[in-house]
């Protein structure tokens, strides 16, 4: 019986190594080990991330590669499971001999993976593990090129707080899924608004397993808050919008942590006529004028079709991971992980998401959140001016809609 | 607060109807065949995807689409029974049926993932966005229609069971499998039809599910546990019991969310079952026979 | 009827195989030093433990529990809390707490079992699922004990990457051996016979003087003890725990599938099931990254096993072997031989027909 196990294990082993073509020799391609959630709970984001990584690899290979060598992505599936993600990075590093490692999707999996990668002394650049728990684990090899999630809603909250007294909301309702991605954002936004005297009239947390959002929506509706801030992903924000539409409740502002950023999927789920005025924070948008972004969009449309609005914000996150790593590798001129870690800690970088600089815990201190508003079927970016009010970010020119038009 | 409470009760009743529609097939299949159909959750999702395909490719209204999806799901059900469930040996059938229907669920999930990816979808229609303004409540048409569909569907099922020859055979098999066989009822045929009807009813449940929430191939897992709770709460095999149990459980859940906190709402949903079973081990409307092993 | 597998020769062969298996398991990390392999091997051993534990209660008694992640999660959170409150540093010492975590999970099993075991058969299945969800939701909601969805971090061991897995492998092996030994000992004891009597006909067993409530509860708590230790080791290995990962519905189903695959109610069945399934599952996920193919393959494989080996791998092979021996006319067991307690086919579901 143990022989049967040993047999299947060694089968798994040989199969693993047979899929390995080179073992990181100096002349061959540079191999980048990545575990992504291609199935399971995070599969939608996992696949978008895969596109971002792939587009970066295509771009750098077209421009002559990294250190003169081509780049290949060794992507394995973790099925959204932390057990699998731990096994995967061990395989990527010790069996496939990956030269570099990029992060998986989500704070939860990044946390589990970062510990494994740290054991090997590898630098772990990632774009989707921005939850506070990633940065409090005491590791010094994790770098999140994206915005630390807790700060996502701060620009929007400061905008509401900075309004002249006549239009400033008097009351606000908050509801968030109990999730390490959403809950910290709502806490930060509420702190800003309460400090500015905006009264909290509803504030509830609900578990991720919730299937009936009716009572929570009803609570916000009967609280009659001027503005609504929700800590959501796509399914729950869809449910809230449906309920608000059905109940004809029109807050002056509706701001969600995530979901409305999902472009085409969001429109498909809530219907194009119900998106007007809905706001969502993000640090990137398809027409942003950061270096390389226009090329990324062009490459995306060529490879996957659709329109620029369809590009999930996971794509530039993945792309930026590649960009930052490549700049650090070029700066040190080698793949030495010790030097790479030192460079990532001290250097400054650019990405399609904007400038990147890491603090000691690996958070990107240069990142800030744009506020986006759906207007006529497209997301329009806004950025804070000197007085914290939101003004159109180029190339947008239309003023922000406040109050939000009725459904 | 009191309007909120009233709203929660109304919401719970309407959502309960939708859950009953999804759970009816599960309890019917159990009643006749004494097996737990773990694939019920994914069958709901499959029903939703069928409606989705008809809507996006043929522009068919989800309710009209039922004329196609219900028969299709009937044959899916018959196929599952014939292909897998029938072949189980009598010994240890309960346990093996859980295993085999779980395997079927995995295969269906894999096929759906292959065709539709993990993206979230939802169904659209004019009645999804609008609501009826009545007595100060906004009642979404989709929930009203879903509830009506549930009551109509479950009533039709009862009529079928009590007024038709096949229905007699099914009920006879529910009461005593061996006895039914002795009086010349073709148990295999009855089982296949039962499984087919169970899946067919689920097509309707899946359509309403797809119109009220977003779904992807993964959605079956959260569903099956809730459907099982409803079915056991109502008493395994009792269709009326499932309707009442669904309404009771959902009302308690929604009221908890309003009076206490949404974080405890789901907990209450499951806790209700545990509490009820301490008092009534056969559920609210279960047959005594379930106690005897 | 004489059992050709009950001769001293075959019994000796079984003991020998078990010994060889243990030696192979101990030698494994020295032969396969690759961390990617030892990691899979460690998780496999933890599943050997969890699945054997599941079988010890559910396989023997016929009560299908689908909520054993309650124990797994309880053990994991116990370890995380103790390590946090005592400000423990990562190292071998943490493993000393693993049996305590098991005891804690076993204690959790007492009230849970008291509640769940008031019901039978299908209802019991659903009640265990419900209790599982209540526990998962409690892990989200009891912030002071679990830090909610933010998760908890465990101390980080100082070991190097090359040998890191070996410590956990050793701990997992000990738990797996304890689980197998317990399930073997129970199987041969009066306690085990009581459980089997409950599976065959609970009311009659009670009539014959078996204290059914007490026997069931004891087995349930014993299951909790082993499963809780597996949860604690997993938590320590992963370094951080979150409610949906340690209270995982898939775990509930997986350990039951393993026992089924290998052979329900046999000592070796869950072991074989776990050894086959866990590496295969990880391999399929790795190999077929794209879309639903791994799910389809996995499901179809199960359908095939149920179709052709409905009793599980071990009883089916034993039957085949027995058939071969009979037709070859090998010498049958002597009349003086004691009845074969530990021959797998004898406790297979087929051999003990459940009256319905």
Could you outline the blueprint of secondary structure elements for this entry?
The complex is a heterotrimer of chains A (about 400), B (about 290) and C (about 350).
Chain A lengths: L1 H17 L11 E7 L6 H20 L8 E7 L4 H14 L4 E3 L4 H13 L4 E3 L5 H4 L6 E3 L9 H9 L8 E7 L5 H13 L3 E8 L7 H10 L3 E5 L2 H13 L6 E4 L7 H7 L7 E5 L10 H12 L9 H19 L4 H10 L1 E2 L6 E2 L12 E6 L2 E7 L5 E3 L15
Parallel strand pairs in A: 1-2, 1-3, 3-4, 4-5, 6-7, 6-8, 8-9, 9-10
Antiparallel strand pairs in A: 10-13, 11-12, 13-14, 14-15
Helix pairs in contact in A: 2-11, 2-12, 3-4, 6-7, 8-9, 12-13
Chain B lengths: L1 H32 L6 H19 L3 H24 L7 H24 L9 H4 L1 E4 L2 E4 H23 L1 H11 L1 H6 L4 H26 L7 H15 L4 H21 L2 H18 L14
Antiparallel strand pairs in B: 1-2
Helix pairs in contact in B: 1-6, 1-9, 1-10, 1-11, 2-3, 2-4, 2-9, 2-10, 3-9, 6-7, 6-9, 7-9, 10-11, 10-12, 11-12
Chain C lengths: L7 H24 L3 H27 L7 H17 L12 H19 L4 H21 L1 H4 L5 E2 L7 H28 L1 H18 L4 H27 L1 E2 L1 H4 L2 H14 L5 H20 L5 H16 L4 H16 L28
Antiparallel strand pairs in C: 1-2
Helix pairs in contact in C: 2-7, 2-9, 2-11, 2-12, 3-4, 3-9, 4-9, 7-8, 7-9, 8-9, 11-12
Give short descriptive properties of this protein.
heterotrimer; A: 407 residues; alpha/beta; Rossmann fold; 2 domains; eight-stranded mixed beta sheet; five-stranded parallel beta sheet; 13 helices; 18% strand; globular; disordered N terminus; C: 356 residues; mainly alpha; two-stranded antiparallel ribbon; 14 helices; disordered C terminus
Q: How would you describe what is shown here?
A:
The complex is a heterotrimer of chains A (about 400), B (about 290) and C (about 350). Chain A has helices spanning about 1-20, 45-60, 80-95, 105-120, 130-135, 155-160, 185-195, 215-225, 235-245, 265-270, 295-305, 315-330, 335-345, and strands spanning about 30-35, 70-75, 100, 125, 140-145, 170-175, 200-205, 225-230, 255, 280, 350, 355, 370-375, 380-385, 390. Chain A is of the alpha/beta class and about 400 residues long. Chain A folds into 2 domains: about 20-150 and about 290-355, Rossmann fold; about 150-280 and about 370-390, Response regulator (Rossmann fold, 3-Layer(aba) Sandwich). In chain A, the strands form 3 sheets. Chain A has an 8-stranded mixed sheet with strand order 7-6-8-9-10-13-14-15, sandwiched between helices. In chain A, strands 2-1-3-4-5 form a 5-stranded parallel sheet, sandwiched between helices. In chain A, strand 6, helix 7 and strand 7 (about 200-205) form a beta-alpha-beta unit. Chain A is globular. Residues about 1-25 of chain A have low confidence and may be disordered. With about 290 residues, chain B is mainly α. Chain B has helices at about 1-35, 40-60, 60-85, 95-115, 125-130, 140-165, 165-175, 175-180, 185-210, 220-235, 240-260, 260-280, and strands spanning about 130-135, 135-140. The N and C termini of chain B lie far apart (about 45 Å). The model of chain B is unreliable at about 290-293 (pLDDT under 50). Chain C contains 14 helices and 2 strands. Chain C is globular. Chain C has about 350 residues and is mainly alpha-helical. Chain C has a two-stranded antiparallel ribbon. Chain C has one domain (about 5-345).
